[in-house]
Structure formats: structure tokens, C-alpha cells
Amino acid sequence: MSEHHTGGCQCGTVRFIVEGALGRASICHCRMCQKAFGNAFAPFVSVRGATLTWTRAEPARFQSSNLVKRGFCPNCGTPLTYEAPDGTALAICAFDHPETIVPDIQYGVEARIPWVAHVNDWPVRTTMEDLAEAPFLDEIVSYQHPDAP
Q1: pTM listed for this prediction
Q2: Would strands 106-107 and 25-28 be described as parallel, antiparallel, or unpaired?
Q3: 31-44 pLDDT per residue, tens
Q4: Please, which residues have CB within 8 angstroms of residue 133's CB and are 6 or more apart in sequence?
Q5: What does residue 3 show for φ and ψ, rounded to 5 degrees?
Q6: CATH number for domain 4-139, candidates 3.40.50.300, 3.90.600.10, 2.40.170.20, 3.90.1590.10
């Protein structure tokens, strides 16, 4: 049986399946990726060599440079793709099981935000441990599309 992975956006408008082996997983710190994700870095996995099928709507695309398009959900805005001449990469956390995809290289480190190196040094709390600071967390009902089992 062929390896396959599923995923999609937060609202479920855009869903995908990748059939075949995933390529190299990485994170990118470049300023373009920071802006595209609204985050300190962007985690991607290459799907070059595998078959990517959009099973619902396709993502909308933004031409972020002369060579690269970035796909995102037109409804909820979830970042989904990095589409370059050498292939497509998908946002790791858009997969239903992102914990199985482990980056092994960082790119664009010249733009790395300095505090990223210290994230593991900070105190940690689970969501429910934060109830004293944000009691509304106990009442949250998620409308997010569920991950596939």
C-alpha cells in the first residue's frame, strides 16, 4: 500500500491528500516566509516526487516573488503552500498529523529572529493550566475542521 498523508486548512474549505513519500522537511526564517505565515518561521515539507491532490477547493495563491507562489485558504487564510520552479512544499502544520514530520534543516537564517533560539528556555503551561489568567479557555468550543484519524 502506498504511503499517504492528509491535511487541510483550519476551516476545512481546502483539503489535500499526498500519495507517496514526503520529501525533506525544513523551516525557513526568511522575511518572506515570516510575513506569509505571520510567524517567526515557516515549517514546510517537500511533496516533490509525490502526488498532491486537492480533495475539496484549491487554495488561492499569492505571487510573493517573481518565482514563487504561496497558497492559502481563501476562506480562513491558513497558509498552505510554497510553490517554486523546483516543486511544491506544504505547510507541515496543515497536515492532520504534523507530529510525524520532523524538519532537519533551517533556511534563511540571516533573518532568524533572535528570541527563537530561546523558546525552549521559557516556562511552559498547558492550556488548562492557564485558566486563572484566561478563564474563558474553559468555555471554548472549536469550530476548526477536525484532523483525520
Answers
A1: 0.93
A2: parallel
A3: 999 999 999 999 99
A4: none
A5: -65, 135
A6: 3.90.1590.10
φ/ψ of residue 114, rounded to 5: -55, -35
pLDDT digits 0-9 by tens, 79-117: 999 999 999 999 999 999 999 999 999 999 999 999 999
For the chain, what are the domain ranges?
Answer: 4-139
**Contacts for 17-21 with beta carbons within 8 Å, 24 or more apart?**
17/52, 17/53, 17/55, 18/47, 18/50, 18/51, 18/52, 18/53, 18/90, 19/50, 19/51, 19/53, 20/49, 20/50, 20/51, 21/49, 21/50
